[in-house]
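Lab notebook: predicted structure, single chain.

Context: the supervisor wants predicted structures on file for every construct in the current expression panel, including those that have not yet been purified. This is the next one on the list. No modifications to the sequence; it matches the entry in the shared construct table.
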Amino acid sequence: MTPKELWKLSIDDFNKWRRENDLLKLFNCFQKTLPHFNDWLNEFNFTIDFILNTDKPGGFFYWDTETILVKSSERGFDHYFFVPIENEAHDKRLRKKSGSDTAVEYRFMPYLRWAKNKLKYEKIIESKYSSHETFRFVLTNAPDSPEASQTFIAPGIPVLKLGGTKIKGWGHTSHVNLDFADLDFLHVKGNHHFSNETDIFFSSCRNLLFENSTVNFTNFYSCHFEKLQIKNSRFSGTAFFKCDLFGADIENSTLLNFVIDECYMHSFSFNRVETDNLIYIPPKRNWYSGGSLTYENIMHNYKRLRVLYQNNGHRKEAGEAYFNERLYELKYNKSSIEHKRPIRLLFQMGSDYSKPLIMENINKAGSIASDFFSYIIWGFGERPFRTLISSFIILTFYAIFYFFSGIATINHDLYNSIYLSIIMFSTLGFGDFAPFQDGYYKIFMVSEALCGVFIFGLFIAGYANKSKY
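Prediction complete. Output recorded below exactly as produced.
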């Protein structure tokens, strides 16, 4: 059937067709290609028919913790949903609440995490050219043709094509099984929407276009996005978890309760976008690059989000975005310094070739030192309270020095040591202390006064800086 014909089916017929056709073929391939897949089925008493009949097959693979599949008949029909167990306390609460007459629970470890634990390594899915730690889309035939493109998921299996066509509103996806699907070039136009939560796992969403649409309560898990376009639309309660977000153009739209959680993203643009409660949680490391490029991408993401928050008047969020932008800039500079290459070039090809890299490393080292000092002392201007902590540390250090010094008027008196440290730090002068004759002590006390002037300046500038948003 063509994508257009499939979208015209009723919800029950659509899901039934997928169970009996593409998903059945996909899971039969999983049995042959995924390591110990049959052992996993047997351990948790699952069958392929059972998994497919839930119409939520992706949930059996995604989470990294023990998960509960709940089969509920409270609404008069069987409804399945997943509850990943967050920690031991969460598990205890769930066990106390279990035992409902209208619900059946199945506890299991999702396949990907189970297989990784069993095999003792992460990249368990083999494809033609490499191995992967999760389902990734490894090949697309005719990638620029909406009608002819076809996408393959690791380990090299084609998924059902549902894109390359237009649907009248995101509401058509309600209760529809869109896991392991090819939604490339799907054009969503129209305000037909719904109030039910929709979860989509492991689907390709390249060149997905939302135009004059309303999207509510939709969660994308480990989906692959390229060149996402959102125009004149409203998104509410939408979340992206561990997705690839490689390029997005959002224009004249509203984003409410919009979550981007550990997604590998870059090349975003916001044009006349209204937002409220947009949350961005960066990944620890990009799967496709090293730490340096990861930090650089995250730095640019926070920069774009800072501008978006500022345009919407969200001062606190803008300040946090600026803090994280500077923090990841510091991490990027630190990770991008090349230690061995300049030395190797110096010995192999001479100073003319190594000098540019050496100078670049020196400049980065200077930036790292400056940024690290700014981070510690006042959090790049976004943590002015840190200056008070710095002040306390400086006061304590100098008071200890005065206490153990040979200054006669202090005479190992703790009270006088603290008092002298405070009046020098606050630049109030000696007060009832006579000037000291020893130049060494004079220079030391002047250094504390200079620290006080510097710290007070940062404290004032920090709070003035926070008011600019």
